[in-house]
Amino acid sequence: MLNDTKIKQLKPRDKMYRMADHSGLCIEVRPNGSKHWRFRYRFLGKASMLSLGEYPVVSLATARQKTIDQKTLLDQNIDPAKYRLEEKEQAKLKSESTFKDIALEWYEVKKNKRSESFRLTVEKAFARDLFPAFGSKDLKTITPHDVLRMQKDTIKRVSKQMNHGTGESTAIRNRQLVNSIFNYAIANLRCESNPAISLGQTVERPPKQTARPLTSDEKSRFNSALKNSRSTEMVKNSILLLLYSMMRSIEVCRLRWEWIDLENRLITIPPATKEQLDQGERNIKMNRTHLVPISDQIFKILETQKLQSNDEYVFCSVFNKSKIMNKTTINRALGSMGFEFTAHDFRATASTLLHEAGYSSEWIELQLAHVDKNAVRGTYNHAQNLDERRKMMQDWADMVDGWKQ
Are 213 and 352 in contact (CB under 8 A)? Predict the structure, then answer.
């Protein structure tokens, strides 16, 4: 058996060693000279060891009492190591954690697997609405009333800003973030209830504005307005390519040079890789191969862009050529030109005018990258009627050029 004199006389060696007391208690001497109590036991036939603290902070008498406590648990068929882990988890659950602490912890887990757009949205929500509302409050004290008030404050904030809507969509998105954060907290034993879970119908989402074709007046003013716009040539080119190609804004912003075959006059947008999907990114909305014939007008734009974009993307940020163009840039440029339509309305315009011109609805839908309801047919349809679609895309570009005041 050990005593204090024997323990004090134990000297460090090159390797860690242990000296036994009794009933499974021993002291571990490490090469740095520190001494630690260990309790060795067997549970369900499996050998285990439990730390009981460092000597002399934990005295010999205290270590022996702790040994008795562990043996009492074993007599009750309780694994001391598992019991200690459960105690720690309960202590963590009872400890005070602010909403901001848990929200940032949740964000660290999520951010590397989500898109840059998601990350920016979350960071803005934290800074503008969630942390000002209850970031410093203990997570367990946040009530449904707090979440409701946050939603109302969000609506007020957004509605005061020009051209940012009435705020309902932002408030709903904020509530969904709060819901996800509390679900994470519950799963990690940081709290026991979610104050946002029953508030799904407390804010009504505003009617979604569907895309519309440009009016005759808007078409007649478009080319002149774009020519006289103060936007950079790159932004003007992105608007024109978006219009000529019938692509979506995000698809134009993410357009890569490696997808472009100028010799065969064809843009081939591939499905996203697994790595892209893990980060919440897609090259095209429905993640299928999409072919865009290159008209004379698109060819000219691409030749111009070769001189001013980076080596990877056709359109890069106005302020940082190493990054892609922000998808909001195009709509902001259209707004600065005095138009009330959005880039998405270009697609509705193309669909309307090409149908009126007698083109096949199937070709138009293929060019808009709308998904075929038949999944198998939709997988292979992207290459069908390519010659006919080439002519259609050239005719469409010529129609756009013919919009004169």
Answer: yes
